[in-house]
Each structure stands twice: as structure tokens, then as C-alpha cells.
Amino acid sequence: MANLGVNIDHVATLRQARFTPYPDLIEAAKICEKAGADGITVHLREDRRHIQDRDVYSLRKIVNTKLNLEMAATRQIVEIALRVVPDEVCIVPEKRRELTTEGGLDVWGQRRRLAGVVNRLNKKGILVSLFIDPEPKQVRAAKEVGADCVELHTGTYAEAKGKTKQLKELKKLKQAGKLAVKMGLRLNAGHGLNYQNVRPVVRIPGIEDLNIGHSIISRSVFVGLAQAVREMKRLIKR
Ligand code: PXP
């Protein structure tokens, strides 16, 4: 069984499409928690396309489970994280023109800079997770820079066409996960997970949190947010 972190970015996407005060993010977070979410995740992007600074501060006040802030390790966003003090941050790579986070973080390639960022966040009592592709080199680098946790990027698994390719990607996730657990890192996963593909990921040994957004918010259009969360929670419980 894994914990469910519901990413509510796309509630804000809808709001920002018209710059209306609704749908209200605070209400969304409360509904998710009431429906069984174990955490609320938001990504404060540099381009502020969905989540705004004020959202993060407001959510900090009302989230009772766990607030996980996804962010790029830029100076400005790190300063915001240090002021907000979420329970956990997940450092992601960010490109301005991407539709969503495209690949994992190259921890190995920026070890020194990331070690400094991890240290500053840790000193504030914030747990730090690094969003990486399932590669042993990146897992080792995550340990080396002092991260508490890795979040394995499940995007390639989610997009793999056909059973063979999917199983190959799943194997990579399992192997990277095994190494992470062996090295004493907490293990999370996310990106592109939906009601159809989540089950095999739940079974990866050592997996703790799954951060899922787009599929849940999409489903909520038809069945409501509480029901969409409950359905996902049921799937990852078994
Ligand atoms: N985890 C991380 C690190 C992400 O960047 C995202 C997307 O913001 C997610 C999980 C959630 O992905 P999805 O919206 O595809 O479920």
C-alpha cells in the first residue's frame, strides 16, 4: 500500500484560464484530504502558469496531512520554500516551454549546487526529495547530495506502448527503487500515473508516496473530486 499525494495544480490551471477566483484551491485541498488523500502536492512553476505564490502560503495554513512543494532549485523559488516551510519539497527540472515536467533531474551533473540547496532546506526541517529518472547513477548522486528521498519519474513507464515496453520500464523502476531503499533513501514515484496504470507501481517494493495529479483532476470533471480521490485511493490500497 502506498500513500496518495494529490497534485492539485490543474485545479489552478482551470482558475488561471480565466483569472477567476474559482475553482478555489483551498476548497480543493480540503475535499482531497477528507476523501482520503495522504498529502497535497503543488508545483510552483517559474512561469506561474497554474499555482501562484499566494496559493502556497494559503495551503500551508490549511493542509493537515502533508504539503509537498514541487519546485525548480532556482534562487527565487528556494527562498519562497524557506519562507513557506512545506513538509517536503520535491526538486524537479523545469523548462519554460514544456507542457509538464519532461524528464528527471540530472543530480549527477549538478551535485555541488544541489548539495547546497538540500542543506539549506534540511536546516529548516524540510524533507527533500529529488525527482529522477530510474537510473542507478542518479540514485547514487541523490544520496551523495544528502537528499532524504527520491521520486522516481514514471512518465516513460506511463507512456510505454505495449506490454513488453511497459514491463521493461517497470523493471527499471524496480531496480532503481531497490537501490534507493538499500541506500537508505525514501522512495516515492509519480508522473503520468492514472487509474489504469497505477497498480504495478504500487507493488514496487519500498514505495511510499505516489504523487498523482492530471488523471485525478480529469476524472473529477465527471464524478467530482472526492469520488475521484476515493477511487484512486482504493486502487493504491490493495
Ligand atoms: N510528480 C512530479 C515531480 C511532477 O512534476 C508531477 C507533475 O507536476 C507529478 C508528480 C504529477 O504528475 P501527473 O499530473 O502526470 O499525475
Topology:
Layout: E1 3-7, H1 9-18, H2 25-34, E2 39-43, H3 53-62, E3 67-71, H4 75-84, E4 88-91, H5 111-123, E5 127-132, H6 136-144, E6 149-153, H7 155-159, H8 163-182, E7 186-190, H9 198-202, E8 207-212, H10 214-223, H11 225-237
Parallel strand pairs: 1-2, 1-8, 2-3, 3-4, 4-5, 5-6, 6-7, 7-8
Helix pairs in contact: 2-3, 6-8, 10-11
The chain binds pyridoxine-5'-phosphate.
In words, what does this structure look like?
The protein is an alpha/beta fold and 238 residues long. The chain has a single domain (3-237), classed as Aldolase class I (TIM Barrel, Alpha-Beta Barrel), CATH 3.20.20. It is built from 11 helices and 8 strands. Helix 2 runs parallel beside helix 3, helix 6 (136-144) packs parallel to helix 8 and helix 10 (214-223) crosses helix 11. The longest helix is centred in the C-terminal third of the chain and has 20 residues, at 163-182. The model has no long low-confidence stretch (mean pLDDT 96). The structure holds pyridoxine-5'-phosphate. The site of pyridoxine-5'-phosphate has 19 residues, from strand 8 and helix 10.
Summary of the model, kept short:
With 238 residues, the chain is of the alpha/beta class. It has helices spanning 9-18, 25-34, 53-62, 75-84, 111-123, 136-144, 155-159, 163-182, 198-202, 214-223, 225-237; strands at residues 3-7, 39-43, 67-71, 88-91, 127-132, 149-153, 186-190, 207-212.
How would you describe this structure in keywords?
238 residues; alpha/beta; TIM Barrel; 8-stranded parallel barrel; globular; binds pyridoxine-5'-phosphate
